[in-house]
Amino acid sequence: MSALHCWVSGRVQGVFYRASACQRATELGLRGWVRNLDDGRVELLVCGDEPRLQALQAWLTIGPPGARVDSVECQPVAAPDDIAEHFEQR
Fold it and tell me: Is 36 a known active-site residue?
């Protein structure tokens, strides 16, 4: 299983970005979490197979209607042993 740690900046809080990212990740069968950061960014840790991770990463650059994504920074990381069996909002 592969994993990505991502940070999304722009107008991504208060526009259902987290909820939409959670829904999209769930549709793709990915595991992990998404949360808002105090600096206005959204952070994700997502685990799954490469094609599904790439599909989510492509979606992150667009986001839901109302969002304005300025940048998406993702880094490959080791999949944590304690990752949830589903995708959750924090």
Answer: yes
